Predict the structure of F-box domain-containing protein.
Amino acid sequence: MSHPVPSTSSLQSTERIGQRASTGKSEPQNSHIASIHVLDDDSLLNVFYLYRPFLLGKDEDDYARLMGGSGGWVRGRWWYTLAHVCQRWRNVILESASYLGVSLVCTEGTPVADMLAHSPPLPLVVDYNNQDHGITAEDEEGAILALRQRDCVRRVRLGNPTTNLQKVVAAIDEEYPILEYLVISNWTEDNSTILIFPETLQAPHLRHLALDGFALPIGSRLLTTAVGLVTLYLVMDHPSTYFDPNTLLRWLSSMPQLETLAILFLFPVPNGDIERQLSQMLIMTPVPLPNLHTFRVRGVNTYLEALVHRITTPRLEKLEIDFFHQLTFSVPRLLQFLKTTENLRFDSAKFQFFREEVYVEVYLHGEAEMYALALKVYCWHLDWQVSSVAQIFDLLGQIFSEVEHLTLEHEEHSWYSEEHNEVDCTEWCKLLSLFRNAKTLCINDGLVGELSRCLQLDDGEFALELLPELQELTCSGSGDTSDEFTSFIDACQSTGRPVTLYSVRRTINTLILWCGYQYNVDVEAKMVPFPVAYEHGFGFWWHQ
């Protein structure tokens, strides 16, 4: 597949866009039609600036942005056609190349040697990111040729299996003075071959670095010279790629502009090993990250503790933590870190229990679209999951004292054994007692019976002290779930603490709103008179 190359030769094109060529015959003129050439150069430049496409995943989710967007960077060729319209347009674009961010794009099928020989000396964008098949010999040669133009390379994204990346990655060495964006992913599940990043690579103007499946040499010059780095995303999938907290903190100490930091280990490291490494720490000074707003860590809790003990993040807006399963957790420094981060004040929490993990999202306020804190523990079986989060949140309990809205969801699996699917009520009570200010509690079908059982004590009384501020209880299920909590609601009422019960009844094809009496509903015409509603795909309240 060939691609258009912006040639430096003179262009033969029409200078009057929007006007018909003269034929010698008089034609009616429309006073409301004007040529775009009536615009002066500054106005034309503004049009070109607004015409530029969004690149790098600006409007996508976090992962897509970290990896440079889900689309190809071939859209960086937006200016190729415009430059061939006429000489004036070409001059406007090339004279303002830096302002417009124009570049030459090298990707699959690009004749790189030919393009470099016949194009203006513009910055290069190198994008070979194909998960479906490996890089061809021709593309490999072209990518290496482009990467050897070190003074011109602005952005690089490589994503291929290990065997296809070895030669290309090896070419990324020495100094790249204008490199701003570097994303490299090893698209393979085979960890037998480890890719080691060139130790001599330097990029003093690098702003975005994302490496997935690579070993970074401890003596790498890349992270010590990239003082303007804004995004750092490192994924380690093999023990040989591990670096200790001291090394990471040393790298971070030279990155005061950092805004997004994600460090993910896909393998567990024994806590004892990390503790021995920390005992050898020589420098105990804090590492300020004044601009950091997003921070994600995946690993064992000792590694996390080492990081949050040293870094200061006054502007943190979102914190994500992924823990491997372990019997005990100890996070006293995480508690102190959260208490000193001004922006993290929580209003609502959602616990989601899945097959192999428990996932918790905590929000600053009920209407927030994005969580401020996300915590995940990788472990199987509901009893282990509840025990893990109860233990962690018990250690962090102080910062959740103001949470007013609590949600508990469970993804049921038929192959779960009853032994592991039934949780000790002590663990549920420990978890619920941490949210003493909760005013609303939502429970889904998989946990309705479980929670109703745990709210009742052995002597038949109810544990009303667990949620003393509770005002609304919502439960959902395929049947009438309200009966499960009727006695609890009555007990609250008798103590002068009225709690309103809501229930969502779900059937296979229909969701029903029920208020004690029924009306006829014309489903076909979508007529939904109150108070009974039949609709597909939406939930409705049943108020008792």
Q: What stands out?
A: Residues 8-26, 508-544 have pLDDT under 50 and may be disordered. The longest helix spans residues 382-395. The chain is about 25% helix and 20% strand. The first strand starts at residue 104 and ends at 107.
